[in-house]
Amino acid sequence: MERLADTRMRLCVDLKECEYLLIGLGEEWERLEPAQIPGAYESLRRLAQGKDYFVVTTVTDGRIFESPLDGTRITAPCGNRNWLQCSCSCTKDIWERGELPSEICPHCGAPLTENTIAAQEYIEEGYLPQWNAYKAWLAGTLNRRLLILELGVGFGTPTVIRWPFEKTAFFNRKAHMYRVNQTFYQISEQIRERAEAVEANSVEFCREMIENLSGI
Ligand SMILES: [Zn+2]
């Protein structure tokens, strides 16, 4: 495997030349310590600066929405732990944490639970508007120069980012994908022409990318 520094330099060029930037965030971002979170998202913001970008994240801590990234360009389909739903799913209503101090569903009296895929019956209304915005954005990238950065995504929920991103790289002949992951960096044969494996922690990799970018 070539040196990581060379990969980062090539990625800097790809970043400059791409028309669209698709970012996927997975388990490596879920595992961040609270103190690391602001710096990690700040690196992403700088990577995405001036780009027509969209972020898909499986992380459910909601911290990305407090970051300087544009909230209208983020979708979190696995939910947000700061939002609550009825644990019996009697209603599609969603409340912000603290909005109902009793944390009891006003419709049926059941306790509220976090609005994430961990809920027994996940109320999807919370993420769907932004998911639809993402689908519309993605449709506009077909056969355009699309740079795909898949960062730290494993096999927790592969149907959300990992497999669809591979499909996007496969069908868009002008796409180029980097799969950055400490452990699950492998690329399948079908997309080898348009994708590369980067064996590195994705959070660390982004931070170092920013140092490269500022050095150009
Ligand atoms: Zn209820």
3D architecture notes:
It is built from six helices and nine strands, in the order αβααβββββαβαββα. It has two domains: 164 residues, TPP-binding domain (Rossmann fold); 44 residues, no CATH class. Helix 5 links the parallel strand 7 and strand 8. The longest helix is centred in the N-terminal third of the chain and has 14 residues. Helix 1 packs across helix 6 and helix 3 crosses helix 6. The chain is an alpha/beta fold. The site of zinc ion (ZN) has 8 residues, from loops.
How are the strands of the biggest sheet laid out side by side? 3-2-1-7-8-9
> What hetero molecules are in the model?
zinc ion
Strand content: 15-25%
Give Rg in angstroms: 18 Å
> What is the number of helical segments per DSSP (H or I, 4+ residues)?
6
Query: What is the level 1 CATH name of the largest domain?
Result: Alpha Beta
The total of beta strands comes to 9
The appropriate CATH architecture of the largest domain is: 3-Layer(aba) Sandwich
